[in-house]
Structure formats: C-alpha cells, structure tokens
Amino acid sequence: MDKGQVEKHYSQLRLDPVSNDWVVIAVGRAMRPEDFSKNKREKIDVSEADCVFCNIATQSAPVLEYKNEKDEWQLVVIPNKYPAFSVGNELRKEQQGPYETMNAIGHHEVIIIRDHKKTIAEMSTSEVKLIIDAYQSRYLSLKDKKFVNYISIFNNYGKEAGASIVHPHSQLMAIPIIDPDLNRSLEGSKKYMDKHGQCVHCAMIEWDITDKKRIVFENKEFVVLCPFASRSSFEVRIYPKVHSAYFEKIDDQNKQSLAEALREAIQRIFEVLGDPAYNFFLHTAPCDGGVHDHYHWHLEIMPKTGTWAGFELGTGIEISTLEPDKAAEFLRLEKNV
C-alpha cells in the first residue's frame, strides 16, 4: 500500500503541519459524489425586480466601480448596510472582570457583480479576474488604514453557507485583530521555517506536485489541490507555485492565472457535486506591520458536504468522509484531466 493511502476499512488521523490540527479521514462512509446529494443546497429564487443588489449602483455610492464599454456597471464595491465592523476614530479596550472587550472598528464591504444569476462556475476567466482585481484594489486601499491589522475576503454561496442574498457577491472585512485560524497558521509556518529552513506550504506543494494524487488543476503560476489533511470532503486549495506571503502584491499576469484556477476549481466542484453551497476565503499574511515572509498566501474552498455534530463540536477535530486522493480524482475526471 502506498504511503499516505488510507488502509481499507480503517479511518486515519492526519496532522496538518501548518495549523498542527488533527483531522479524521473516515473511509467506508461516502464513496462517490452522489453520496453527498443529501447536502445539496436549497435553491431560492428571487427575481431581479425584488433583488436588493440588482440596482445597487444607482442606490448607493460605490467605493469602487468597474464599467464596460457601454458605460454600464459590471462590478461595484459598497459599504455593507449592516456592518459587523464600523468605521471609527478610537479603539476602546475595556476589562470587565476576567473578560476583555474592544469596539469592533474596521471596514465591512460588499463586492457585487452585475449579473443576477451567473455564478463563478459559469463565468469566463476575464469575468473572474474582474472580481480578483476588485479584491486587490480594495485590499490595497484599506491595508494602511488606522486600526486595520488584517483583511478578510470571502465568498458565501448558498443559504447553507451563510449567504442571505442570492445575488452573487463577496465580502471584505478590514479588522483590528488577526483571526485565530490564521494565527495558528502563522505560528505553524514560522516554526516549520525555523526548524527546516523552508516554507511549509512550499514543501507541501512540491510533494503534492510530485505525488500527483491530490492535484486537481494547475497552470504556470498556480496549483489547485485537495489538501492531504482535508477538513471536509472535496476541500480545495489554490496556491501560487512561487513563494509569496502577500496576496496584494500579485501582478496582472498572476491575477489572470488565479482567475483561471479559481474558475476551474469552482466549476469542477459545481459539476461533480451538483451546484453545492460553499465558502471560499483568502488566507494571506496580515497587514499589521510585522514581517511574515515565512507565510504562503492561498485561497481555500470549502463545499458544504457535511455537518458538525457532537464529536466535531466537542473536540474541534473535523471528519472528512472521503479521501482527498479520491476527491481530487473525481474533480480531475470531470474535466478528463
């Protein structure tokens, strides 16, 4: 049996070398994509006439707007009407007994494309690149703002993934703290660099490209893969092949290649799992003034293929019911790769 292959009938614990979290690869439960059909997203139809985003460019003052040759808006970025983080001039910290609080100062924006129904799986590479252009543009505009130490960019697709509005959109939050998940990744990548003198993500990418089993797609600049320690079935990550800690530094060619990789990844998930709900989000080095060259930025895509229950909630250990090798195989075969 090859190293890394799960022995038949036995589950396997796998350690993520970056976060130092364990996951369980539980075999013998779900064997094919159709076994996940029960997790298909609930389809909600909202007409364009009733959509709050369809005419948003004329109703709100965009902080960023891209137009086509007919002077029609194609993408706008607006402040969120109900922000989780709000612009402020003072960061107030308070101690309440054993508890510490601070006001949630920051920026919360929504990135909206014009087409009411077209998902990333159905877009052209140039349309996806426009979204990435907006991500980078807003990141660069906000990263040096007062109280901004980290910028989270994410996309919720489907009700089960937390999307409250069906019109395709992404969100951006520029916040004064670094989130715990990224903190663990920063600490893990720093420890690996100190011990081995190499980026842990680069080591994983090199292994996976050589091993080939978990590769879904690659072009000159990016690789799409199912991670060895996948937290859920059909988890996919997109990495730049050349080491880079900071997403905001990508050039136009890299944005084009990233757009192709993201479209391919979402399209394959769409076709294999039948238009599932999913989340994708950016993990990049924070903009807190620190030096984080040991980190390696990437995108993570998490289709909704399972539900946390007692074990996951009680231990924090996630269970994937399909081997990453098998998930990657399904995603490759769909495109005859």
UniProtKB/TrEMBL annotation:
The keyword Nucleotidyltransferase applies. Pfam families: GalP_UDP_transf. Residues 9-174 form the Galactose-1-phosphate uridyl transferase N-terminal domain. The keyword Flavoprotein does not apply. Keywords: Carbohydrate metabolism, Metal-binding, Nucleotidyltransferase, Transferase, Zinc. Its EC number is 2.7.7.12. Zn(2+) binds at C51, C54, H116, H167. It comes from Candidatus Portnoybacteria bacterium CG10_big_fil_rev_8_21_14_0_10_36_7. Its cofactor is Zn(2+). GO terms for molecular function: UDP-glucose:hexose-1-phosphate uridylyltransferase activity; zinc ion binding. The gene is galT. GO terms for biological process: galactose metabolic process. Binds 1 zinc ion per subunit. It comes from the Bacteria. The active site is at H169. This is Galactose-1-phosphate uridylyltransferase. InterPro entries: ADP-glucose_phosphorylase (IPR053177), GalP_UDPtransf1 (IPR001937), GalP_Utransf_N (IPR005849), HIT-like_sf (IPR036265).
